[in-house]
Fold each of these.
Amino acid sequence: MLKHGKIHERTKRIIAVLGAFCLFLSTIEYLVPKPLPFIRIGFANLPLLLALQMPFTAFITLVIVKIFSQSIISGTLFSYVFLFSATGTFTSALIMFCLRKFIHPDLMSITGISVLGSLCSNIAQIILARLFIFGAAVIYIAPPLLAIGAVTGFVLGFFCEKFMKESIWYKNIFTKSNDFVVRTPVKHKVNFVIKKDIIVFFAGFLLSVTILFISSPLIRMAMFLLFWVFAAFKKKSGNPFITILFFLSVALFNLIAPYGKIIAICGPFVITEGALLQGISKAAAVEGLVMLSRTVIPENFMLPGYFGNIVGESFRLLRIIIEEKKNITMKNFIGGIDSILIKCYSISEESGYIKSNR
């Protein structure tokens, strides 16, 4: 069983394995087309549900690993999307941890905890969307967003309960003290951040602050186009259709609250200059920060210290999960995931990377 207190090497390896699982699920979720960039289906919350029995320090470490690594996978570290993701994840994680700790399992199942956590995450994101993007028009996206959160929370919670009952990996980690049989290790090259990447990283940070404090829609639009060109040059610009759809959705939602000079009237619908410019300005800022993040964050970005070791190990184990994902089939869905987690833990234990790199 995992004990409270200092995070030991074994617990760090567990965090790294669950962090890699978060990354894998985040990658799948990133590939699913979404009309708004901050909408999260919630696949990557599954490892957090599995980790609810961990001590609070270890659980929060996993949450931070998920948030940081997810922003690197999606290229949103310097954007509003990171703020939305971090706020939603922290809100749902703290709610779920408290529910698991203070409410008896007979009174609330993992499925119920998952649904409430998902709804709390969506509510936090709706509040941020009200403040930064859509204004009062957020009331129109709130119902479908909450509905999606309730459905995905139920499905994830139901699957998590089934996985807990059938998973050999979960039973060994959270119900027994013995470790797994050690398998043949797979060595991976360790990538470190070079000075050039550090300079580019901080330059990107300064540019992100600049685009946030500039209120001119014209300048914001120019910066967005510049960042889009840079991202396209590095083949990281993403799907242009999604970008255009987001621009149109933000602009249209801001027109619902008209102010300023009237440009056109279409029946009861009034298009005003102020609302239109505000919508364009907000959309340019959000998408500009996304393109900037994709451009300046290197794929091998790592942090120093034990937290950096866990993040680095998670990325290395992600490669193993991707290589072994063929074992996950509809007939052996839980068994396939279980075998991959067992292999990841065994390889991490044998490699000794977390223990030898402090």
Amino acid sequence: MSPPDRTDQLKRLARIRGQIDGIARMLDEARPETDVLVQLRAVRAALGKVEEGLLRAHAERCVAAALRSEGKAEAAARLEEFFEVLARFGLR
């Protein structure tokens, strides 16, 4: 199995880094709290997209591998790992 392409996630993280730098400038310039809060929410949403993309990639790679697996024990272990990831995100 080839390593996943993380180009999109890295691009998103670079944009998020820029947003965070902008938020720091906003605080330094004493911009209104409401403006800062809007930007913080945007960063959280952007991080959520990175998280979603990584979770989707994990599901596509690991769960698909489990379903293709010839061994029931290996398939069960991969699926259990996936369910544990979902539980950590409160999605189970």
Amino acid sequence: MKCLRPIGVALGCTMLASGAMAQLSITPPAQTPPAKKEAPKPKVHSPVAKKPTPKPAASATPKPAASPTPSPTPTQAVDDPNVDLVYGAYQRGMYKTAFDLATVRAQNNNDAKAMTMLGELYANGLGVKRDYVKADEWYKRASDAGDREAMFALAMMKIAGRGGTVDKDAAVKLLASSAKLGEPKAAYNLALLYLDGQTLPQDLRRSAELLRMAADAGSPEAQYALATFYKEGTGVPKDLEKAARLLQAASLADNVDAEVEYAIALYNGSGTPRNVPAAVALLRKAARQNSAIAQNRLAHVLATGAGAPVDKVEALKWHTVAKTAGKGDPDLDDILADMSPEDRAKGEAAARKWIGNNVK
């Protein structure tokens, strides 16, 4: 089972039956449980040389130097509809500047985006002291003005009980309004609530619809979750080709779970033409991103030579790293049992180095 955490709130997770637990057709891990048919629970130029300037003749009267044109200050362009200096300052980490500019726009122009920015700054303590009550107030004003991002942020605060008490009913309404306005994060989180069946009655079809909305808007998390729906036939007709396309899209956006799933699909030719070299490359990438499942599968490939040249030293490294993360594999223990003491020492040393440098 794979844990999908809601976007935008550090709470628990909803469990989703993960195809990342699917097996390569080579030796499958013994402890991997079979997938259940019941509804799964789911868990941001070269410089151009200038020509030399000729010196003036000695008799020529020198011209006074031109006065430099002053650079516009941030406040001079606040009302320029083509320049969003508030967001620009935020992106550059100039949070106090973003706060000052957003305050002007919110107070003078009733700018909903500026209000949302103030909520964001207060909620995260950026440029100002963290204050969930003030964040809630600004998000509420922006939400009432129709800003979909503020609706989503306010919903997440109400789910977490920040700035007030937990209010899941209000959060659901805000998520629904935000999703209706096209906010993919709201659609994704609302889909998880429909899938989980605790805050809302479980509705797999509605969950799939919301995931599709978020996936079409480019959410890698939604693409991965919806791919699992298509793979298992949850809320949608089973369709391995659609599942593979969604996994490919999510993996291109560096979603690690999707990289593992898509690698397995490529290795087995499930819903997509078989491409073992591409599959192994993706497993390597995901293994380096600390996916224990990818590390385990890569160790199998390297230990058996089923997709890459045999390299038992490297296989032992990844097997040991995966085992440290709780992904033990008795089959690999057996396959690697005949290694020479020298090779075993190399593999174990490589694993210790990786763990020391990468595992927090």
